Amino acid sequence: MSAAGAYGRKAASTFRLPSSNRVLIYFCALFIACWSVGPFLWQTSTSLQLDKQLVGGTPKLLPDPITFTHYVNIFVAKSFHRYIFNSVIVSGMTTFLCLLFGSVAAFALARLDIRGRFGILGFILAVSMFPQIAVVAPLYVLASQFGWLDTYRVLITVYLALGLPLVIWVLFGYFRTIPRTIDEAARIDGAKPLTIFFRITIPMSLPGVVTTGLLCFIAAWNEFMFALAFTSDFNHQTVPVGIANFTDLHYIPWGDIAAASVVVTLPLVVLVLIFERHIIAGLTGGAVKE
Amino acid sequence: MAIAKTLSHEADLRPPHFSFRFRRPGPVLLLFPALAAIVAVSLYPLILGLWLSFRNTTLASPEDAFIGVANYQQLLTDGQFWNAWVHTIEFTTASTMLETAIGLLMALVLTERFVGRGMVRAAMLVPWAIPTVVSSKMFGWLFDGQNGAVNYLLRSIGVIQHNVNWYGSPDLALPTIVIADVWKTTPFMALLLLAGLQTIPHSLSEAAMIDGANPWQRFWHVRLPLLAPTLLIAAMFRALDAFRIFDLVYVLTGGGPADSTEVLSTLTYKNLFSALQFGYGSALSTAMFITEILIAVGFGIFLLRKMREVGQ
Predict the structure, then answer these.
(1) Who contacts A127 (Cβ-Cβ below 8 Å, separation ≥6)?
(2) Which of A53, A260, B84, B227 could be disulfide-bonded to B267 (CB atoms 3.0-4.6 Å)?
(3) Predicted confidence (pLDDT) per residue in A95-153, tens digit
């Protein structure tokens, strides 16, 4: 079996790709990479150029001279740090609660004796398919009755419920890959389910937990519609709402917008590049299996 | 005490596939917070929305009464609704088809082994991670009618003579939005399809190659049929998601110019939060929901039929 596999792999690498095809593959790969990061790099370059160069008629690929006026502008004139602060609180709390509630729920579904667990999982999946615009009006009514408009808690609660299905499904998948014999050994040693959860299940699926947390954070950080509907003062508005409202009276401040884009996207890009392998596994694991 | 010990001892002797029970705090208690949040924020409001769609609730006046199906009757004769409906279907069809096709091409490139493949895969996550509001502004700047880089590039290679006002013209605005969406979503689609392609055993392609199949035949007769279920499921999720498009349109054009990019989500949002028509707006969102279910059912039937064909 392994000999055949080794032979097959060797055969594949020796006569699968003629050199003309190799050139084509590299060309395509280069194209995909440029297509993916090109617009963001252009945005970065824009954020470092002077306004008069941006409207000069001939766009320059690289900023010359490099200027940080746009970055100064967004923080000094537009108080962009307030939006960032709001977003950090909302996304951070969302991630924490999603992981807390989602992981115990996934643990219960994957490990404990629950009748109709696939019914519950199916229900959770079905709920996550609802178009969000269908719940924004009723939630607005409820939030105003509770006096929750313009608060962090309304956004955190909504994002929590929107994030939980993904968290539960991905973690359910991870938890099921841990051999049951380990649980049973711990149980024979007298461990209670919650001890097993905190001392065995969570540490053993840490990559999965970190990835899911990251997905939750990105989803909450990027969400726009609910934030737009439920917050109207800038003390609670998140970054996407802030950027969407970035317009001056007479012209569109492309340089400032570009600077804000870079500030809010760079941390995400760095995180994503670090956790690339785990994210892809986490995102595609559930989607591809039938 | 002794009895309890005997009982628990007995429990230990059950066959190992039996998962263990415990009564305090109870597994249901662990599920409760998550399920409560989902029911309170997704299921209950959905029902409340359905209820609102039969009322004439507005936030601008104290009006709030049951009016039966009047909202839905109004909907059927509402030109704006059908206008938005058509745009949404056009957008969904165009973006899903382009993203599936280009995503498949990208996935086929990435299944090959080459130096730097990991880096390309990482780069492909960048569009996915960028907030949609940011990518909308990015494309707003790229396709800007006066100083946009796209206009400059097309002018320098001689495709166009004068600057084109991409999202300021009713004919070009929707295609421009499709381009922005394709940029943002295709790489993710490609990664999904790549994961699907990697589950197909290499030995099958190799066997076909030994039988003399050329690359095109190996793709068309071996890999594509095996990938079809993944392809269809991915396309379905993409279509359902594309149908809800909101951020991109709201930020890039706001539905304009002359309503040429108005889609169902933006129309609903405007009815809700600009006109404050909560009753009528809820009828709109319910109509959207029903269309989504139809799309899902359509894909589902198609998928089942395909699977049965493959099975026989």
Answers:
(1) A165, B38, B42, B43
(2) B84
(3) 999 999 999 999 999 888 777 888 898 888 888 788 888 899 999 999 999 999 999 99
Q: Does B116 touch chain A (CB under 8 A)?
A: yes
pLDDT digits (tens, 9 = 90+) for A237-284: 999 999 998 876 667 888 899 999 999 988 888 888 888 877 777 666
Q: Answer whether B111's CB lies under 8 Å from B198's CB.
A: yes
B52 neighbors A138 (Cβ within 8 angstroms): yes
CA B217 to CA B222: how far, in whole Å?
A: 7
C-alpha distances in angstroms, B285 versus A272, B45, B269, B298? 34, 12, 9, 20
Query: What is the Cα B266 distance to its own chain's centre?
Result: 16
Q: CB of B215 within 8 A of CB of B208?
A: no
| DSSP state for residue B55 in the 8-state scheme | B
CA distance B148 to B145: 6
What part of A 107-126 touches B (C-beta under 8 Å)?
Answer: 107-109, 111-114, 120, 124
What residues 203-262 of chain A have any CB closer than 8 A to a CB of chain B? Answer: 218, 221-222, 224-225, 228-229, 239-241, 243-244, 246, 252, 254, 257-258, 261
- Mean pLDDT per 10-residue section of chain B, whose length is 312 residues: 43 46 65 92 91 87 83 90 94 95 92 86 89 93 88 88 87 94 91 84 85 84 86 87 92 88 94 91 91 88 79 58
Distance, CA of A105 to CA of A273 (rounded, Å):
29
A137 with B52: Cβ contact below 8 A: yes
Letter for the amino acid at A145?
A: Q
Token pair of A199 as six digits:
């001392």
Buried b / exposed e across B47-59, counting CB within 10 Å, b at 16+? Answer: ebbbebbbbbbbb
**Shortest Cα distance, chain B CAs vs residue A66, angstroms:** 19
Cβ neighbours of B253 (radius 10 Å): 23
Supply the DSSP symbol for B166.
Answer: G
If we measure between CA atoms, which residue out of B246, B292, B268 comes closest to residue A227? B246
- Side-chain-side CA neighbours of A38 within 13 Å: the count stands at 13
Give start and end residues of each alpha helix (H) in chain A.
Answer: 2-15, 19-47, 51-54, 69-76, 80-111, 117-128, 133-146, 152-177, 180-188, 193-196, 202-204, 206-222, 225-230, 239-244, 254-274, 276-288
Q: Is residue B97 less than 8 Å (CB to CB) from chain A?
A: no
Chain A residues within 8 A of B202 when measuring between CB atoms: 8-9, 12
Rounded CA-CA distance B279/B206 in Å is 60
B289 with A130: Cβ contact below 8 A = yes
